[in-house]
C-alpha cells in the first residue's frame, strides 16, 4: 500500500505571495491532518479534515486554510506569506474507524522557504 | 491543554550502548502517548504507542517505552543502539474529544551515535 505523498517536496516563495500544498493520504484513510515544523516552535498542529469537513483546528491565523476533496486528498493554503512561514509542512493520514486513537501516518513533508 | 517536555535536546551515545530518552507529559485525563522518529529529510515514523494496559510497550526497531503515571513520564529505551538509530526523536500526546484533536509534540531529542 502506498504511503502518504506530498507535493511539491520543495518550494520557494516570496513574501506576500500565496502557496498551495497537496497531500494524498493512504488509500482508504479519510482523515488528514497538517502540521508545521520549525526549528523554533517545533511540530505544531494546524488542522484536521475528515470526510471533507474540518474537524479540528490548531492555533494558527486565518491565513492558513485547507480543504479536503471527496477522494480524501487534501490541500492547505497559506496566503500573504511571511518569512516566519518558512517551515516543513507535514501531512498525516489515518483511517479513524473507531479506534481509541487513530494512528497517524506521516508523509515526507513539503519544505517551504519564504524569501 | 496538554503539553510534552523532552528535557534533552541532544544525546550522544556510543554504538552498542544502551539508550534512554526522557519524556514528560501534562494532561488531565488518560493520555495517548507516542514516540516518533524522524531521519533527515524524512517524515515521522511511529516507533510505539501507549493507550492503556501494560505500562511497558514494545515497538519497532528494538525500542520500548515505559509509562509511569506517577511521574507523568513515558521514557524511550533501547538496550543496544546502532549507527542507523541516529535521528531526531519526538514524544507526543494525543487527546480525544474537544478542541484541537491533533498530536502535541515535544521539541525533540537529537540522537548522535559515536562509533
Can you describe what's shown?
The complex is a heterodimer of chains A (115) and B (115). With 115 residues, chain A is mostly beta strands. Chain A is 0% helix and 52% strand. Chain A has strands spanning 5-7, 10-13, 19-24, 31-38, 42-50, 53-57, 64-68, 74-78, 87-94, 105-106, 110-114. In chain A, a hairpin with a 5-residue loop joins β7 (64-68) and β8. Chain B is mostly beta strands and 115 residues long. Helices cover 0% and strands 50% of the residues of chain B. Chain B is built from no helices and 12 strands. Chain B has strands spanning 3-5, 10-14, 19-21, 24-26, 32-38, 44-50, 56-58, 64-68, 73-78, 87-94, 104-105, 109-114. In chain B, β5 and β6 (44-50) form a beta hairpin. The model of chain B has no long low-confidence stretch (mean pLDDT 91). The interface between A and B is medium-sized, with 26 and 25 residues.
Provide a quick synopsis of the model.
The complex is a heterodimer of chains A (115) and B (115). Chain A is mainly beta. Helix content of chain A is 0%, strand content 52%.
The radius of gyration over CA of chain B amounts to: 14 Å
Please count the helical segments of chain B.
Answer: 0
Binned strand content of chain B: over 45%
Q: Biggest β-sheet of chain A: count, sense, barrel? A: 7 strands, mixed
- Give the helix tally of chain A: 0
| Element pattern of chain B in H and E | EEEEEEEEEEEE
Amino acid at each position: 500500500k502506498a504511503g502518504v505523498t506530498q507535493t511539491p517536496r520543495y518550494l520557494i516563495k516570496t513574501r506576500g505571495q500565496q502557496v498551495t500544498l497537496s497531500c494524498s493520504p493512504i488509500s482508504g484513510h479519510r482523515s488528514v491532518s497538517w502540521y508545521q515544523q520549525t526549528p523554533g516552535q517545533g511540530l505544531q498542529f494546524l488542522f484536521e479534515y475528515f470526510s471533507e469537513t474540518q474537524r479540528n483546528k490548531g492555533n494558527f491565523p486565518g491565513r492558513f486554510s485547507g480543504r479536503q476533496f471527496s477522494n480524501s486528498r487534501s490541500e492547505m493554503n497559506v496566503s500573504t506569506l511571511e518569512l516566519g512561514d518558512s517551515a516543513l509542512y507535514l501531512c498525516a493520514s489515518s483511517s479513524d474507524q473507531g479506534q481509541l486513537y487513530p494512528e497517524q501516518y506521516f508523509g515526507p513533508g513539503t519544505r517551504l522557504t519564504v524569501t | 491543554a496538554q503539553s510534552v517536555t523532552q528535557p534533552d535536546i541532544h544525546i550522544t551515545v556510543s554504538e552498542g550502548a544502551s539508550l534512554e530518552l526522557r519524556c514528560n507529559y501534562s494532561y488531565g485525563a488518560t493520555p495517548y502517548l507516542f514516540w516518533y522518529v524522524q531521519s533527515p529529510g524524512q517524515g515521522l515514523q511511529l516507533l510505539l504507542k501507549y493507550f492503556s494496559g501494560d505500562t511497558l510497550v514494545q515497538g519497532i526497531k528494538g525500542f520500548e517505552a515505559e509509562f509511569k503515571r506517577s511521574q507523568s513520564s513515558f521514557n524511550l529505551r533501547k538496550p543496544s543502539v546502532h549507527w542507523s538509530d541516529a535521528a531526531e526523536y519526538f514524544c507526543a500526546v494525543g487527546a480525544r474529544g474537544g478542541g484541537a484533536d491533533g498530536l502535541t509534540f515535544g521539541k525533540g531529542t537529537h540522537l548522535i551515535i559515536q562509533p
